Amino acid sequence: METLWMIEPWHWLVLGFILLIIEMFVPTFASLWFGAAAIIVAALTWLLPISISVQIMVWLVLSAVFLVVWFKFVKPLSVDRTKAGLGGSVIVGETGMIVVQPLPDRAGVVRFSVPIVGAAEWMCRTTGETIAVGERVVVTDIVGNELVVSSMKSQAVINKNMHVQ
């Protein structure tokens, strides 16, 4: 008995390239993985005699694996957490650590674990508070190119007093 409907390797190849072209217009990275899976199935069917049902199953499994790997492992790595290009107000409320003690006559330096607005270290001053090297601080304001910081301890006291009232 002759099969009425046959999927040839070039069908998978065409499908794969169509899905890759669609990806250029719909930047979701979903059709990219379906297209890559179709191209792999095309290569497999040229090398091995695989039935249509196995071809479809391989395509579905590869597509699912590619999607899971993309959304679970690769995409989270590409998230830009630097806040570069955003206004200075995004810095207020960020926490960092003092690496050079701010004194009344000179600015200190605060370091952030993740670069904030393109820099990991910023010049800083206090509002009269003494803060030691290694102490955790929170940004309360911005004056020119310097941040105004206060210790996490004093901020905790202020927040506690605000909740009591």
UniProtKB/TrEMBL annotation:
Q: Which GO terms describe its molecular function?
A: peptidase activity
Which InterPro entries is this protein grouped with? Membrane_assoc_protease, NA-bd_OB-fold
> Where do the TM regions start and end?
12-40, 46-71
Which interval of the chain is the signal sequence? none
Q: Among its keywords, does the record have S-adenosyl-L-methionine?
A: no
Gene Ontology terms: biological process: proteolysis
Supply the PANTHER family for this chain: INNER MEMBRANE PROTEIN YBBJ
Keywords for this protein = Hydrolase, Membrane, Protease, Transmembrane, Transmembrane helix
- The answer to whether the entry has keyword Cytoplasm is no
Q: What is this protein called?
A: Activity regulator of membrane protease YbbK
